[in-house]
Amino acid sequence: MKIQLIVIGRTTDGRLQSLIDDYVSRLTHYIPFQMEVIPDLRQTKSLTPQQQKEREGQLLLERLAEGDWLVLFDENGREMGSVAFSQYLEKRQASGARRLVLAVGGPYGFSPAVYAAAKEKLSLSQMTFSHQMVRLFCVEQLYRAMTIQRGEPYHHA
């Protein structure tokens, strides 16, 4: 199974981007992984938050293929620890889905159409993080899950 992380907008902090790139590089040694950045919308000042969510949602949905398992990182999603997340990924890998697509929404979240297309919602924490930091946390947790699955010492529980 391939894993794809889709995010809205580029990471503007070079230090964060460097860390994200490091974990993406590590992760690709374990599984086929791709992170896709949907470019920021232009002229958002003339859009309502709902219009912005709709346009971002349309761009996200265009990237899905038949048989994808879409999971949204959402504040109202299910929380789990790192070991449970690793087990969750093992189950997803065994399920036969071609591709697991994880998505991080834009500043206003997801459109109703994206919620309708999603199979599940996960939450990284009850705390609020910047969208740029969430990307780092996502790739780090994916990497951690792979090391847990293989019994490697990265995760000390």
Distinctive features:
single chain, alpha/beta, 157 residues, Alpha/beta knot, five-stranded parallel beta sheet, 22% strand
Short description:
With 157 residues, the chain is of the alpha/beta class.
Order of helices and strands: EHEHEHEHEH
Low-confidence runs of at least 5 consecutive residues? none
| First and last CA, distance | 27 Å
Provide the helix percentage. 40-55%
SS content category: alpha/beta
CATH class: Alpha Beta
Taking strands numbered 1, 2, ... along the chain, how are they ordered across the largest sheet?
Answer: 2-1-4-3-5
Instruction: Report the sheet with the most strands, covering strand number, pairing sense and barrel closure.
Output: 5 strands, parallel
Classified in CATH, the superfamily is SPOUT methyltransferase, trefoil knot domain
Number of helices: 5
CATH fold-level name = Alpha/beta knot
Shape: globular
Write the layout of secondary structure elements.
Elements: E1 2-8, H1 14-27, E2 33-38, H2 49-61, E3 68-79, H3 82-94, E4 99-104, H4 112-117, E5 120-123, H5 131-149
Parallel strand pairs: 1-2, 1-4, 3-4, 3-5
Helix pairs in contact: 1-5, 3-5
Outline the structure in words.
Helix 1 packs parallel to helix 5 (131-149) and helix 3 crosses helix 5 (131-149). The protein has a 5-stranded parallel sheet with strand order 2-1-4-3-5. It is globular, with a radius of gyration of 15 Å. It has 157 residues and is α/β, with parallel strands linked by helices. The chain has a single domain (2-41, 50-149), classed as SPOUT methyltransferase, trefoil knot domain (Alpha/beta knot, 3-Layer(aba) Sandwich), CATH 3.40.1280. It is built from 5 helices and 5 strands; from the N terminus they run E-H-E-H-E-H-E-H-E-H. 26% of the residues are buried. The two termini are 27 Å apart.
